[in-house]
Amino acid sequence: MRVISNLIEAHIFREKDSEIEFLLLKRAPYQYYPNLWQMVSGKIKDDEKAYETALREIKEETGLIPEKIWIAPNINSFYSPDDEYISLIPVFAAKVAFDSDVKISSEHIEYKWLRPNDAKNLLAWEGQRKSVDIITEYFFHRKSFLNFVEIKIS
To answer: I need a surface site. Which of 3, 37, 47, 67 has the fewest CB within 10 A?
Structure first.
């Protein structure tokens, strides 16, 4: 069995008046996992670092450019029985301006800004829901001992 890491997950959030909302995207019916609600995700190209993929995928899938981006202290994973591998997925948190204009790509058919519990209710996988909790706790409850590393973007 192989262990690979060729995907990223980027949770986009915005804040206003001490409230946080996460952006979720609904996959198009012709996509793998049709009509599934998800955060931004994508495949790392050979010449990219994982955070570069996150920034590229955020722009491609939403038209957004984050104000700041962090490495979230969580690695999601899944097992593929067809190809017999385990995939490890780095998680990123990206903050955008509250009034940002979302322009979804053809990969998606709808988007929603949701409070953490509502976002978690739409996400399919436990690891994704855990990422929402970790990001919310870190940025809004300040009870976390986890360390988010900010990536400097220009």
So the answer is: 47
Confidence check: pLDDT of 146 > 80: no
Task: Reply yes or no on whether the pLDDT at 5 is more than 70.
Answer: yes
Q: CA dist 70 to 39, 79, 83, Å?
A: 15, 26, 31
2-151: CATH topology: Nucleoside Triphosphate Pyrophosphohydrolase (3.90.79)
Best CA proximity match to 109, nearest among 55, 36, 6, 7: 36
Question: In 17-138, which ranges are E strands?
Answer: 19-27, 37-38, 40-43, 68-80, 85-95, 108-114
Q: What is the DSSP letter of 45?
A: P
| Domain extents in the chain | 2-151
Confidence label for 147 from pLDDT (cuts 50, 70 and 90): confident
> 15-19, 20-24, 95-99, 134-138: lowest mean pLDDT where?
15-19
